[in-house]
Amino acid sequence: MIHYVDDLSHVREDMLRGFFVGWPQRPSPRQHLAVLRGSYRSVVAIDDGAERVVGFVNMLSDGVLTAFVPWLEVLPEYQGRGIGGELMRRVLEGTERFYSVDLVCDAELVPYYARLGMRAASSALLRHPAALEG
Ligand SMILES: CC(C)(COP(=O)(O)OP(=O)(O)OC[C@H]1O[C@@H](n2cnc3c(N)ncnc32)[C@H](O)[C@@H]1OP(=O)(O)O)[C@@H](O)C(=O)NCCC(=O)NCCS
Fold first, then answer.
1. Domain residues for 94?
2. 79 lines ligand 1 (CB under 6 A)
Protein backbone atom coordinates (compact mmCIF):
# COMPACT_ATOMS: atom_id res chain seq x y z
CA MET A 1 0.00 0.00 0.00
CA ILE A 2 1.18 3.53 -0.84
CA HIS A 3 0.91 6.28 1.75
CA TYR A 4 1.87 9.95 1.52
CA VAL A 5 3.74 11.96 4.13
CA ASP A 6 4.97 15.54 4.37
CA ASP A 7 6.79 14.95 7.66
CA LEU A 8 10.19 13.63 6.62
CA SER A 9 11.49 12.79 10.09
CA HIS A 10 11.12 9.04 9.44
CA VAL A 11 12.55 9.11 5.91
CA ARG A 12 16.12 7.81 5.69
CA GLU A 13 18.72 8.10 2.92
CA ASP A 14 18.52 4.36 2.19
CA MET A 15 14.78 4.74 1.43
CA LEU A 16 15.62 7.06 -1.49
CA ARG A 17 17.22 4.59 -3.89
CA GLY A 18 16.63 4.62 -7.65
CA PHE A 19 15.70 8.25 -8.34
CA PHE A 20 17.07 10.70 -10.93
CA VAL A 21 16.67 8.17 -13.72
CA GLY A 22 18.60 9.22 -16.82
CA TRP A 23 20.60 11.96 -15.11
CA PRO A 24 24.30 11.74 -16.13
CA GLN A 25 25.16 13.10 -12.67
CA ARG A 26 22.77 12.84 -9.75
CA PRO A 27 22.29 14.26 -6.31
CA SER A 28 23.66 11.87 -3.69
CA PRO A 29 21.13 10.36 -1.25
CA ARG A 30 22.55 12.75 1.34
CA GLN A 31 21.82 15.73 -0.90
CA HIS A 32 18.44 14.34 -1.89
CA LEU A 33 17.28 14.02 1.71
CA ALA A 34 18.73 17.43 2.62
CA VAL A 35 16.83 19.00 -0.31
CA LEU A 36 13.56 17.40 0.78
CA ARG A 37 14.06 18.43 4.41
CA GLY A 38 15.21 21.94 3.48
CA SER A 39 12.27 22.68 1.18
CA TYR A 40 9.29 24.82 2.05
CA ARG A 41 7.19 21.69 1.60
CA SER A 42 7.93 18.16 0.42
CA VAL A 43 5.63 15.21 -0.01
CA VAL A 44 6.84 11.65 -0.46
CA ALA A 45 4.96 8.50 -1.46
CA ILE A 46 6.05 5.46 0.54
CA ASP A 47 5.45 1.83 -0.37
CA ASP A 48 4.78 0.33 3.07
CA GLY A 49 5.62 -3.20 1.92
CA ALA A 50 9.02 -2.22 0.52
CA GLU A 51 9.75 0.47 3.16
CA ARG A 52 10.84 2.62 0.27
CA VAL A 53 10.12 6.08 -1.09
CA VAL A 54 8.61 5.55 -4.57
CA GLY A 55 7.83 9.17 -5.46
CA PHE A 56 8.54 12.64 -4.21
CA VAL A 57 7.85 16.30 -4.92
CA ASN A 58 9.26 19.41 -3.31
CA MET A 59 8.30 23.09 -3.26
CA LEU A 60 10.38 26.17 -2.54
CA SER A 61 8.58 29.36 -1.51
CA ASP A 62 8.88 32.81 0.05
CA GLY A 63 5.72 31.90 1.95
CA VAL A 64 3.99 35.07 0.76
CA LEU A 65 3.33 35.18 -2.98
CA THR A 66 5.74 32.92 -4.81
CA ALA A 67 6.38 29.19 -5.02
CA PHE A 68 8.40 26.94 -7.27
CA VAL A 69 8.25 23.17 -7.73
CA PRO A 70 11.76 22.03 -8.72
CA TRP A 71 11.42 18.26 -8.59
CA LEU A 72 8.72 15.65 -9.11
CA GLU A 73 9.62 12.03 -9.77
CA VAL A 74 7.99 8.64 -9.45
CA LEU A 75 10.10 5.47 -9.74
CA PRO A 76 9.56 3.84 -13.17
CA GLU A 77 7.96 0.68 -11.77
CA TYR A 78 5.40 2.79 -9.88
CA GLN A 79 4.47 5.20 -12.69
CA GLY A 80 1.01 5.34 -14.25
CA ARG A 81 -0.84 4.64 -10.97
CA GLY A 82 -1.75 8.23 -10.12
CA ILE A 83 1.10 8.71 -7.64
CA GLY A 84 2.57 11.73 -9.47
CA GLY A 85 -0.86 13.36 -9.66
CA GLU A 86 -1.50 12.77 -5.97
CA LEU A 87 1.91 14.20 -5.03
CA MET A 88 1.18 17.33 -7.07
CA ARG A 89 -2.31 17.73 -5.61
CA ARG A 90 -0.88 17.48 -2.10
CA VAL A 91 2.02 19.87 -2.65
CA LEU A 92 -0.33 22.43 -4.27
CA GLU A 93 -2.85 22.26 -1.42
CA GLY A 94 -3.45 25.74 0.00
CA THR A 95 -1.23 27.51 -2.54
CA GLU A 96 -4.17 29.50 -3.97
CA ARG A 97 -2.99 32.36 -1.76
CA PHE A 98 0.25 32.61 -3.74
CA TYR A 99 0.38 34.76 -6.85
CA SER A 100 2.61 32.28 -8.68
CA VAL A 101 3.40 28.58 -8.53
CA ASP A 102 5.88 27.73 -11.28
CA LEU A 103 7.85 24.76 -12.51
CA VAL A 104 10.06 23.94 -15.48
CA CYS A 105 9.26 20.87 -17.57
CA ASP A 106 9.68 19.38 -21.02
CA ALA A 107 7.04 20.47 -23.53
CA GLU A 108 5.58 16.94 -23.64
CA LEU A 109 4.65 17.23 -19.97
CA VAL A 110 2.74 20.51 -20.25
CA PRO A 111 -0.61 18.68 -20.78
CA TYR A 112 0.10 16.66 -17.61
CA TYR A 113 0.45 19.85 -15.56
CA ALA A 114 -2.42 21.52 -17.41
CA ARG A 115 -4.73 19.04 -15.69
CA LEU A 116 -3.74 20.76 -12.48
CA GLY A 117 -4.53 24.22 -13.85
CA MET A 118 -1.02 25.13 -14.96
CA ARG A 119 -0.19 26.59 -18.37
CA ALA A 120 2.81 26.65 -20.67
CA ALA A 121 5.44 29.39 -20.44
CA SER A 122 9.02 29.88 -21.52
CA SER A 123 11.91 29.59 -19.10
CA ALA A 124 15.66 30.21 -18.75
CA LEU A 125 18.00 27.84 -16.94
CA LEU A 126 21.44 27.92 -15.33
CA ARG A 127 22.96 24.57 -14.30
CA HIS A 128 26.14 23.58 -12.40
CA PRO A 129 26.41 19.76 -12.71
CA ALA A 130 29.54 19.73 -10.55
CA ALA A 131 27.34 20.56 -7.55
CA LEU A 132 25.85 17.05 -7.72
CA GLU A 133 27.66 14.53 -5.52
CA GLY A 134 26.18 11.33 -6.94
C1 LIG B 1 5.97 12.69 -14.77
C2 LIG B 1 5.79 11.66 -13.64
C3 LIG B 1 6.12 12.31 -12.31
C4 LIG B 1 4.33 11.22 -13.61
O5 LIG B 1 4.16 10.35 -12.52
P6 LIG B 1 3.05 9.19 -12.54
O7 LIG B 1 2.86 8.69 -11.16
O8 LIG B 1 3.38 8.20 -13.59
O9 LIG B 1 1.79 10.07 -13.01
P10 LIG B 1 0.25 9.72 -12.91
O11 LIG B 1 0.04 8.25 -12.74
O12 LIG B 1 -0.36 10.65 -11.93
O13 LIG B 1 -0.23 10.18 -14.34
C14 LIG B 1 0.14 9.43 -15.47
C15 LIG B 1 -0.11 10.27 -16.69
O16 LIG B 1 1.05 11.08 -16.94
C17 LIG B 1 1.44 10.94 -18.29
N18 LIG B 1 2.89 11.09 -18.42
C19 LIG B 1 3.82 10.57 -17.61
N20 LIG B 1 5.05 10.87 -18.08
C21 LIG B 1 4.85 11.59 -19.21
C22 LIG B 1 5.73 12.19 -20.13
N23 LIG B 1 7.06 12.13 -20.02
N24 LIG B 1 5.18 12.86 -21.16
C25 LIG B 1 3.85 12.95 -21.31
N26 LIG B 1 2.96 12.39 -20.45
C27 LIG B 1 3.47 11.73 -19.42
C28 LIG B 1 1.02 9.54 -18.64
O29 LIG B 1 0.87 9.41 -20.01
C30 LIG B 1 -0.30 9.38 -17.91
O31 LIG B 1 -1.34 9.90 -18.68
P32 LIG B 1 -2.83 9.26 -18.59
O33 LIG B 1 -3.31 9.49 -17.18
O34 LIG B 1 -3.61 10.03 -19.60
O35 LIG B 1 -2.68 7.81 -18.90
C36 LIG B 1 6.65 10.39 -13.88
O37 LIG B 1 6.39 9.90 -15.17
C38 LIG B 1 8.14 10.63 -13.72
O39 LIG B 1 8.68 10.55 -12.61
N40 LIG B 1 8.83 10.90 -14.84
C41 LIG B 1 10.29 11.09 -14.82
C42 LIG B 1 10.67 12.38 -14.12
C43 LIG B 1 9.95 13.58 -14.67
O44 LIG B 1 9.79 13.74 -15.89
N45 LIG B 1 9.49 14.42 -13.76
C46 LIG B 1 8.81 15.65 -14.07
C47 LIG B 1 9.81 16.74 -14.12
S48 LIG B 1 9.01 18.28 -14.56
1. 2-131
2. yes
- State whether the beta carbon of 109 lies less than 6 angstroms from ligand 1: yes
What does the pLDDT look like over 57-91, one tens digit per residue? Answer: 999 999 999 999 999 999 999 999 999 999 999 99
What's the CATH code of the domain at 51? 3.40.630.30
Contact 56, 45 (CB under 8 A): yes
pTM of the model: 0.96
Mutate-to-test residue for ligand 1 from 79, 83, 118, highest number of ligand atoms within 8 A of CB: 79
Q: How far apart are CA 62 and CA 84, in angstroms?
A: 24
Structurally, the chain folds into a number of domains equal to 1
Can you list the pairs that 18-21 forms with residues at least 24 positions away whose Cβ atoms lie under 8 Å?
18/75, 19/53, 19/56, 19/73, 19/75, 20/73, 20/134, 21/73, 21/75, 21/76
Task: Determine whether 74 is exposed, middle or buried from the number of CB atoms within 10 Å of its CB (0-12, 13-18, 19+).
Answer: buried
Judging by DSSP bridges, how do beta strands 52-61 and 41-47 pair with one another? Answer: antiparallel
Distance 75 CA to ligand 1 centre (A): 10
